[in-house]
From TrEMBL:
Pfam families: Portal_Mu
Protein name: Mu-like prophage protein gp29
Source organism (scientific name): Ectopseudomonas toyotomiensis
Superkingdom of this protein's organism: Bacteria
UniProt xrefs under InterPro entries: Portal_Mu
Length: 524
């Protein structure tokens, strides 16, 4: 059979007939067993852990991967923070970008969008993110011919213990074999995610290796804590008998003391008694174990999330630095690396199988949106808008996730109309001699307002229409003349053009109101 012209990212030819067959399936015997035969964490001690980590670094990572699996099952804190980091990435919006605006490139992007919108795609992301803990993860697309095209109908997560790295570079993944030499994987068969959490061999990059010592120490500490609670969780029971007690009576007392611990009830002769004695400093021992467990949990949080301030201690980082409890720089790196894996092992293979090799390919992007403090934005925008800063309403609505109201729709409005900021400082009572002059906007506000202050505020509320007949001739003259001397010479002739009747009436009415309020106050 002639070799296919389609090649994978490493330049190896892909054979379409091999893609329609599953690479490996679980069995009850042999290398590819689904069930774990023995536990590693049950017999973990410093010597055993050192042996496991050294073996993994030298290419035998079976026990290490088993330990990494059991760590997620037995340590609630590690499982929680690792799950948080995984879900922070898998929950990001998946966007497909066309290689260009060319019609053909847009068509390829539409096909890839259909691929990522399949429900099994999101499950595959969770499986690939298992590599964060173990150093690598493998998913096998199960290809089928549908309408003459290759489509992955599901993605099978493959146990990482079924694979090994080549003995020369430690980078190329192989299938495990009975002889230990490893079997080469056909090109295009697998999606292999190897996040670059640290430089070097992939098997040494998972956070499980980083956390393993803390996991072991915490397990020891919890065992000691439980022993401590069993011994010192209740008072010490002391049975006392008289000098004439017989051996049978002493045996009865011994059974009574023992039964009291389990049954909270005992029977003994009248002349005997049981005393309960509290153990001094027992509480201090419990606090020691608790502090040790909390400290180890914080180290695990640092190793997995990059920080501890969003887990258990009640603190919080800036929203700009943290997203769903994961540091933004870590989240961006995880998302970028996972997208690169998908584009290399899935998108390129999918496009090549159905449309042939391309010069440019559409690409998957996991969008990381920077968190924004909307409250700070709203507080900052208010004063700027009051000062006349033009702000597009649709942009602000988009930031808050709100839609523009439709015509005729009921909209929310403030209960009391806010006065323009330019008027607020004029309405603030001031005790200084220059009360009528402008006052700084950031000046300290007076604590109280009397009735005259309210009267002034009411009269100034509509000063623009009242002053308009007086000021219009002045503004018209200013627009008409070209020099200041002409403007000054024309002012004298404006008196007849000014209509000050409304202004005089308002001033007289305001004076009357002020005089009336003053007279009433004097009488009271």
């Amino acid at each position: 059979m002639a070799e296919s012209v389609i090649v994978d990212a490493q330049g190896r030819p892909i054979h379409k007939t091999e893609l329609l067959q599953e690479l490996v399936q679980a069995s009850t015997t042999g290398v590819y067993q689904a069930w774990t035969v023995e536990s590693v964490s049950a017999t973990l001690d410093p010597a055993r852990l050192r042996s496991i980590l050294n073996a993994a670094a030298q290419g035998d990572h079976y026990s290490y991967l088993t330990l990494a699996e059991e760590m997620e099952e037995k340590d609630p804190h590690y499982a929680a923070v690792l799950g948080t980091r995984k879900r922070a990435v898998s929950g990001l919006p998946v966007v497909v970008e066309a290689a260009s605006e060319d019609e053909h490139d847009e068509q390829l992007a539409d096909v890839v969008r259909e691929l990522v919108e399949a429900p099994e795609f999101s499950d595959m992301l969770d499986d690939l993110l298992d590599a964060i803990g173990k150093g690598f993860s493998v998913a096998e697309p199960i290809w089928q011919l549908i309408g003459g095209q290759f489509w992955p109908t599901r993605y099978e997560h493959r146990d990482p213990r079924w694979f090994q790295f080549d003995k020369v570079t430690g980078q190329r993944l192989q299938l495990r074999s009975e002889g230990g030499d490893g079997l080469e994987i056909p090109p295009g068969k697998l999606i292999v995610h190897k996040p670059r959490l640290k430089s070097g061999l992939p098997i040494r990059g998972g956070v499980a290796r980083l956390v393993a010592v803390s996991f072991m120490c915490k397990a020891f500490g919890l065992k000691d804590w439980m022993r401590f609670a069993e011994l010192y969780g209740m008072p010490l029971r002391i049975g006392r008998y008289g000098p004439g007690a017989k051996s049978d009576d002493i045996a009865v007392l011994r059974r009574a003391v023992a039964q009291l611990a389990a049954d909270a009830a005992a029977v003994m002769p009248e002349g005997m008694k049981i005393e309960f004695q509290e153990i001094a400093n027992a509480a201090g021992g419990a606090e020691l174990f608790e502090r040790m467990a909390e400290w180890l949990d914080k180290q695990i949080s640092k190793g997995v999330l990059g920080q501890t301030m969003t887990t258990d201690d009640g603190s919080s980082q800036s929203q700009a630095n943290v997203h769903n409890e994961v540091r933004m720089d870590i989240l961006r790196a995880d998302a970028k690396q996972l997208a690169a894996t998908l584009n290399r092992d899935l998108v390129q293979t999918f496009i090549d199988l159905n449309y042939g090799p391309q010069d440019r390919y559409p690409r998957i992007v996991l969008q990381v949106t920077e968190a924004e403090d909307l409250k700070a934005l709203a507080d900052a925008l208010g004063p700027f808008i009051d000062r006349g800063l033009p702000v597009e309403a649709s942009a602000i609505l988009d930031k808050f996730g709100l839609s523009a109201p439709q015509s005729g729709a009921q909209v929310l409005r403030p209960q009391h109309s806010m006065q323009p900021l330019a008027l607020n400082h004029q309405q603030t009572p001031c005790a200084c001699p220059a009360c009528g002059k402008h006052k700084a906007l950031n000046a300290e506000q007076q604590p109280t307002r009397d009735e005259l202050d309210e009267l002034v505020a009411d009269e100034l509320g509509d000063w623009v229409p009242v002053m308009k007949p007086v000021l219009d001739p002045v503004q018209a003259l200013a627009q008409k003349v070209e020099t200041f001397d002409e403007f000054r010479a024309g002012l004298a002739g404006l008196l007849d053009q000014m209509d000050d009747s409304a202004l005089i009436e308002r001033l007289a009415l305001a004076t009357f109101k002020a005089r009336a309020k003053g007279d009433v106050s004097d009488q009271l």
